[in-house]
Amino acid sequence: MKESQRSERILAYFSYLNEARQQAIEEMKNTRNELVEQKTTLVAKQNQQKTLLCEQQMVELRQNEIRLRDKIVRAEREAPGAAKVHAKEQQAKKTGTPYQPSGADRSLMARIGGLGRTAGQAVWPVRGFYPAELWRTTTWRVALERYGDRSKSRQ
Question: Which residue among 1, 115, 127, 140 sits deepest, i.e. has the most Cβ atoms within 10 Å of its Cβ?
Fold first, then answer.
């Protein structure tokens, strides 16, 4: 009798282990299926993002193309005027007189980026020696704007 009870217990133990193993296998299968579904969803989202990015880049390229075409058209429209200004500048150089562009010439040169340095035009916005003291005062002014005037608080 002891032997039969022992074999029943062993049989019950192994059936319990077998059942737990089956449950673990089912859980793993379910987890694997969920992972496959999530992976396909993720790949689909990545593909969608790639296509959206490509579309945005194409739109940006089209906008750049349109902007460049507009600049080309504007430059072609203003080229004769620029040639006239350049001819006036060359004529002034030949005669030895400084070239003073008119208001229309200045606005044309500003629109097309200038025709180079005109005679008598300074490279810097100031004439002569650029004082180091100006740099110091400018730096001091920026510091005052940033941190405020602290000399008032000391008094």
Answer: 115
Q: What is the pTM of this model?
A: 0.42
Give the Cα separation of 69 and 100 in Å (integer): 32
When comparing pLDDT for 93 and 44, which is higher?
A: 44
DSSP string, 24-50: HHHHHHHHHHHHHHHHHHHHHHHHHHH
Burial of 78 (C-beta count, 10 Å sphere; 0-12/13-18/19+): middle
Say whether pLDDT at 34 is over 80: yes
**What six digits make up the tokens of 120?**
């008598």
Q: How far apart are CA 126 and CA 137, in angstroms?
A: 16
